[in-house]
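The protein record passed on for reference:
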Amino acid sequence: MAHYKVILAYDGTHFLGYQRQGPARTVQAAVETALSGLGWQGKTVLASGRTDTGVHSAGQVIAFDLDWSHSEEELVRAINFSLPSDVAVRDARLVADGFHPRFDARDRRYQYRLYTAPNRDPLRERFAWRVWPAPSVDLLRSAAGLLPGSHDFAAFGNPPVPHGTTVRFIFETGWVVQGDEMRFDIRGNAFLYHMVRRIVFVQVQVGQNRLSLEEMESGVRDARPMPPGLAPAHGLTLMEVRYGDIGQETD
């Protein structure tokens, strides 16, 4: 029996999130069904975290034990053969038995995409939020600059467990602009429930002059409540989860 670390990519449009929920179509259920066809007998696949309904991933990390006598490349092909077209294994590696994709994570990186246009664009709206009027890029970047460091982000999300801490450390943030498309990247040690989507929503409010930078700064610094609202799920993608030595492959 070996312990595997696997990286998943998926289009979250037609999944009710990552976590298994009874008969609902979820990423976890799809993966566990595929593994069962390979002789997996575990109760649950471990994951780096949950993604909400409609959220995408390029780098979800899962782990499981499996009695597999072939190569890691063959394992990737075998799992993908049984997965639906909107989820796929990108990579599989043998790792130490104690590796846990959630508790051993050093940091996580999310990306949020939006575009600015007065009218809908069906070819882009599957993976990006249409925003109009266009927010000020300078204000967006100033708002993003308030986030790095250790803060109580209670105004931007809820802890994953009742009464859990709302303090998180943000390593870096940034906005990249190409034409009418904007991309927000954020890397932190961990995130609250809905935290990235709340942060994006509030930044857009600032960028459209509906909320001042000072008000957002108070929300970050003092956990002052922010205007209600979330950026839509379909613009968000979990890009990468990084680990220390325990997340590296074994010899």
The chain has five helices and ten strands.
